[in-house]
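The protein record passed on below.

***
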Amino acid sequence: MRRSRRCTGAVLLFFLLAVLQPVTGQSPAPEFFITVAPSVAIVLQGEATSLTVIITCNTSSLVVAADCNAWPNFDFHLSEFPDGTQAELAAGRIGANTISISASSDATLGSFPVQVTVVAGKTAQVQTFVLNVRQAAAAPSVQQGTRQPVGIQAGPVLTWEHRILVAKTPEEFDRKANDLGRDSWELVSVITRWDFGIAEWIGFFKRPKRT
């Protein structure tokens, strides 16, 4: 009888350890998520552009969401940029954050993957976008000996058309923004608003008005 009790106790201890092992091995839930829009940023030599990094707290846990909202700022880290380009950004915050990218007149041409890493608390999130550096449009050459008119003729006035995009999740916003980008729409800014406790991402787009 004593041997049977010892065997039963050993079996119970084995099953208890088997149940506890996966629980202790679970990784903590991320405190926030990030989305980068657009996924492809285009900049011309000698000009500048911008993209938006959206930070949203993980609302699956009240404790995790409270920790996220308590952080005063989020640290941004960018991987290496091509020669002749640089980025400017401020301390990150919950919602939309703008990264300004400029290119010198002799910046290296091509498409380059750039990683955006956002760190706060015990969470680090990474997203990748493509930086496309293109050659600026060449100025029209003036043939030697050609007489130029004295008067300056006014060119056509460029007018813009605008569009607003509303999305329920960062992933939906990124997908719809990419679709608009294929139709020449440019992202101007992004804001986040709360509608009865539900977050919405609102993007403002523009493009030259088509005749």
